[in-house]
Write a structure and sequence with these properties.
Strand order of the largest sheet: 1-3-2
Largest sheet: 3 strands, antiparallel
Oligomer: single chain
Number of helices: 4
Distance between the termini: 37 Å
Strand content: 15-25%
Order of helices and strands: HEHHEEH
Radius of gyration: 13 Å
Number of strands: 3
Structural class: alpha+beta
Length: 66
């Protein structure tokens, strides 16, 4: 039982890729990157290559505000 809750917690806090966010918002991945530059979407740079990632809850907040 405890393992299931840990797995659910990890899924809730999993970082999303640009492609995943674009799919969720039904927009092109370049639009996601443009919105990040404009400050419309909160993003995080991950790893040495500074890959863009997004928290699921931030995307849900963005959808609610829109």
């Amino acid at each position: 039982m405890g393992d299931t809750k840990v797995q659910e917690s990890k899924l809730l806090h999993r970082m999303l890729t640009v492609k995943e966010v674009a799919s969720i918002l039904n927009i092109h991945s370049n639009t996601v990157r443009r919105w990040v530059k404009k400050g419309l979407l909160k993003s995080y740079n991950i790893g040495p290559r500074h890959n863009l990632r997004f928290k699921q809850e931030d995307i849900l907040d963005f959808i609610e505000r829109s």
